[in-house]
């Protein structure tokens, strides 16, 4: 699933291609909005809210989309070939005389009144990359569930918006605790560091094509996707196990030496399994 910095990049590309331009083509390929036509309307802006994308157009309308695991928005020049996938995977096309924004495999696509955007994103906590960022409120949201594993709490967008599975693992490593540590057991001084550290990670990566949390060239991530390779700090073999709330299990990485707290038995990797590709991101 794309993280907040990736969605922020998508919003930036879409805004640059569409904002303050009149749409010459509009095609929403989902049954509920298949007859909706935005042609002739000016795009006002495209903004990210956590992992959600909001494309606002004249007439008080907003096109709301969410990428989840496989969705993407691609921007193409007028004469450029579309390469984001087969045509049957296209869910939306917004175009002007110079650029076409094409949404592939979008699991969430809806047209709503701009005044009703709260119905789509009102449940979100403070956005790490947004103007509403409030570190005190974000920390208070996390601490409201003291028995909840920290990794699960960080992924809950109602607490703070923008952290995905990569940043969950990397943030826990930098805090020196496992993702299974109950939020209430997080040492006070580390809890106080959490909001600022999370924001620092996302802000540092929102303009990078390759995500980096280590500050080292060629060694982009501390733990995510690296098991069973050695920890960059202590050389202990890194571990991976599933973590989730029952609805979805996510591969979670940690160092058993550098991180304190409970942890399950490491998961066995199936023969031939490769590390997930998470640090490299498309920029078109």
UniProtKB/TrEMBL annotation:
It comes from the Bacteria. Residues 266-284 have a biased composition (Basic residues). Keywords: DNA damage, DNA repair, DNA-binding, Glycosidase, Hydrolase, Lyase, Metal-binding, Multifunctional enzyme, Zinc, Zinc-finger. Residues 2-103 form the Formamidopyrimidine-DNA glycosylase catalytic domain. It is an enzyme of class 4 (lyase). Its EC number is 4.2.99.18. Belongs to the FPG family. SMART domains: Fapy_DNA_glyco (SM00898), H2TH (SM01232). Residues 260-284 are annotated as: Disordered. This is DNA-(apurinic or apyrimidinic site) lyase. The keyword DNA-binding applies. Pfam families: Fapy_DNA_glyco, H2TH. Residues 222-260 form the FPG-type domain. The keyword Secreted does not apply.
């Amino acid at each position: 699933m794309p993280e907040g910095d990736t969605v922020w990049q998508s919003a930036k590309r879409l805004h640059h291609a569409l904002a303050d331009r009149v749409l010459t083509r509009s095609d929403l390929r989902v049954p509920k909005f298949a007859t909706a036509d935005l042609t002739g309307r000016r795009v006002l802006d495209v903004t990210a809210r956590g992992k959600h994308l909001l494309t606002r157009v004249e007439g008080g309308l907003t096109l709301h989309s969410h990428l989840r695991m496989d969705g993407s928005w691609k921007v193409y020049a007028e004469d450029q070939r579309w390469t984001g996938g087969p045509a049957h995977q296209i869910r939306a096309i917004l175009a002007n005389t110079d650029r076409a924004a094409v949404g592939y495999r979008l699991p969430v696509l809806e047209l709503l009144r701009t005044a009703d955007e709260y119905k789509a994103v009102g449940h979100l906590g403070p956005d790490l990359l947004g103007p509403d960022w409030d570190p005190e409120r974000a920390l208070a949201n996390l601490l409201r569930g003291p028995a909840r594993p920290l990794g699960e709490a960080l992924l809950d967008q109602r607490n703070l918006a923008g952290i995905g599975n990569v940043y969950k693992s990397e943030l826990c490593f930098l805090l020196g605790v496992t993702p299974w540590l109950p939020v209430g057991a997080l040492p006070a001084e580390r809890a106080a560091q959490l909001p600022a550290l999370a924001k620092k990670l996302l802000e540092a990566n929102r303009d990078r094509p390759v995500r980096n949390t280590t500050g080292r060239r060629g060694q982009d991530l501390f733990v995510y996707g690296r098991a069973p390779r050695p920890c960059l700090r202590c050389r202990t073999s890194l571990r991976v196990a599933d973590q989730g709330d029952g609805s979805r299990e996510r591969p979670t990485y940690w160092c058993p030496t550098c991180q304190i707290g409970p942890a399950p038995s490491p998961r066995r990797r199936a023969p031939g399994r490769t590390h997930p590709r998470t640090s490299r991101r498309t920029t078109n």
